[in-house]
Amino acid sequence: MTIKAQATLRTACLELVPMGHEHRKFTMQLDMDPEVMKMVAFGRPFTEDEALQVHTWLMGCATSVPGFGTWAGFAKGKFVGWWILALIPTKENPEEFMTIGRMSPKFWGQGYAKEGGREMVRYAFEELGLTEVIGETMTINKASRAVMTGCGLKHVETFFNKYNTPPPGIEEGEVRYSISRQEWLRKERSSITRRRWFSVLASWPPQLLLSRLWSFLFKGLPS
User: Fold this and answer.
1) Distance (Å, rounded) from C-alpha 214 to C-alpha 206?
2) What pLDDT score was predicted for residue 182?
3) How far apart are alpha carbons 115 and 54 in whole angstroms?
4) Residue 193 confidence (pLDDT)
5) Which of 2, 13, 52, 85 is the most exposed place for a label (fewest CB within 10 A)?
6) What whole-number distance in Å separates Cα of residue 1 and Cα of residue 85?
7) Which run of H or E residues covers position 145?
8) Is 221:209 a contact under the CB 8 Å cutoff?
9) φ/ψ of residue 57, rounded to 5
10) Cβ neighbours, 10 Å, residue 43
11) Molecular function (GO) terms listed (predicted)?
């Protein structure tokens, strides 16, 4: 693991800035939104005091381990949600790192959750040198599971916990997803190879492209 200061991250559509006190109103709005919270924690919106406690915890993640923390995501200057990369120690693994996020409903279904999640995974492996990243959600949370799959994580476990105030649907359990650095590197190499081929094909004149495609159908791609 590489120790470094939490950095501002940028993707094609997102600017991910380290969470600050100036972002408190955004995190609290999400935590007090019934639509956002129906499959999170208690299955109900947080009170103002609970939402404030969550923001304090999110801020604290940036100081527990250098380089880690919570990022507020903005698209064209508008807040879309937050992403976190934090140390969540367990008995089995005292150095387990988890990434999760929370999105504003007005930006659901636009690809931001997956884009931010992929950047968390890239940052974890490429810049921090982690060996594994996990994510967890309720079994019934199909949207969250789809995002984790889209970020390259795979389902490794379904588990059941008991809660004093269980959210609706928790009886179907919770799921854990995971990706290792080796798995991520393999996916990245494969993706780079595909992009290079598409770039080469796009640069060919139509006649040459048709000729090579015809050759591929009968002889396979040239080396």
Assistant:
1) 12
2) 95
3) 23
4) 55
5) 2
6) 13
7) helix 142-150
8) no
9) -65, -45
10) 17
11) acyltransferase activity, transferring groups other than amino-acyl groups
| Calpha distance 161→32 (Å, rounded) | 24
Which has the closest alpha carbon to 57: 96, 25, 90, 24? 24
Q: Which two tokens stand for residue 159?
A: 């588990």
Helix axes 24-31, 48-64, angle to 10 degrees: 130
* Residue in the structure block whose two tokens are 């974890």: 124
State whether residue 140 is helix, strand or coil: coil
Give SS3 for 223: coil
Q: List, in sequence order, every residue forming a beta bridge with 18; answer none if it has no partner.
A: 71
Burial of 192 per CB tally in 10 Å (0-12, 13-18, 19+): exposed
> The tokens of 152 are what?
């390259």
- Which residue type occupies 128? L
Residues in the chain: 223
Q: What is the pLDDT of residue 202?
A: 65
